[in-house]
Write a structure and sequence with these properties.
Elements: H1 2-20, E1 29-34, E2 39-45, E3 50-56, H2 68-84, E4 91-93, H3 102-112
Helix pairs in contact: 2-3
């Protein structure tokens, strides 16, 4: 019961954020997802429904875990991949999570890597 309530509240937050956050080819949406073991991030063009750049802690080169250090590492890595794809500015989609802890660390590392949002 309690888990269902938490999941439904999280989904409502996601929908509320997604009403305001839209990605385009010029300014894609940087969506980040944290599971208990891994971190996933992608730059998405919502108009065409294409992923422009993608990175996760499951990749061969990434030794990141789902903590603040891993978030910082993947934030820099997504910034590099986005720059290689020709992306300068993004819209940050935190997927219903508070801008705190790993989410904040990820965003700051992506900004240090050269993304603007």
């Amino acid at each position: 019961m309690k888990l269902d309530k938490k999941k439904s509240l999280l989904q409502k937050r996601r929908w509320r954020i997604r009403k305001k956050v839209k990605g385009s080819a010029e300014r894609p949406r940087l969506a980040v997802h944290f599971s208990n073991k891994h971190i996933y991030a992608q730059c998405i063009d919502d108009v065409q429904g294409h992923t422009l750049a993608y990175v996760s802690s499951l990749a061969k080169g990434a030794e990141a875990k789902a903590n603040s250090e891993g978030a910082a590492e993947l934030g820099k890595l997504i910034a590099e991949k986005a720059k290689a794809a020709g992306i300068e500015t993004v819209v940050f989609d935190r997927a219903g999570r508070r801008y705190h802890g790993c989410v904040k660390t990820f965003a700051e590392a992506a900004r240090e890597g050269g993304l603007q949002f």
